[in-house]
Amino acid sequence: MKDEPFDPGLQPERTSLAWQRTAISLAVGSLVYARIEVQSLGVWAWSFALIGAAVGIFVGVRANARYRYAHRSLKAGVVRLADGLLPAIVAAVVFGAAAIAIAVTLARLLG
């Protein structure tokens, strides 16, 4: 028997899809960045790409667990918020990627 969605507007499902898109964007964006910067950064570009891809996979897995938790809570009639770990991880990764991009740009301009 298939589990029916909690909300007829499918808000938890839309949120889950948004997290999946975020995870894919992190992974693919990291790989594209490495492909672009491989000439100037060499092996470091691929190291950053592998870290970004791993984080993207982790975010995808964690987003799926987050959706299941929210779905179970809503079906049980208990409103519990998910922890803030996933948004904090994404924010830290984006901040780190921006810091790397700024450092690379400054190194090019000054060197």
What is the strand and helix layout of this fold?
Elements lengths: L10 H31 L1 H34 L8 H26 L1
Subcellular location: Endomembrane system
InterPro entries: DUF202
GO cellular component, one term: endomembrane system
Would you mind describing this structure in some detail?
This protein has 111 residues and is mostly helical. It has one domain (11-110). It has helices spanning 11-41, 43-76, 85-110. α1 (11-41) packs antiparallel against α2. The radius of gyration is 18 Å and the shape is elongated. The protein starts with 10 loop residues before the first helix and ends with a helix. The mean pLDDT is 84. It is a multi-pass membrane protein. This is DUF202 domain-containing protein. The chain crosses the membrane at residues 43-63, 84-110.
Which properties best describe this structure?
mainly alpha; elongated
Number of domain modules? 1
How would you sum up the major sheet? none
Order of helices and strands: HHH
Content of β-strand: under 5%
**Poorly predicted residue ranges:** none
In oligomeric terms, what are we looking at?
A: single chain
Q: Helicity level, as a percent range? A: over 70%
Which outline best applies? elongated
In round numbers, the mean pLDDT is: 84
Class from secondary-structure proportions: mainly alpha
Helix tally equals 3
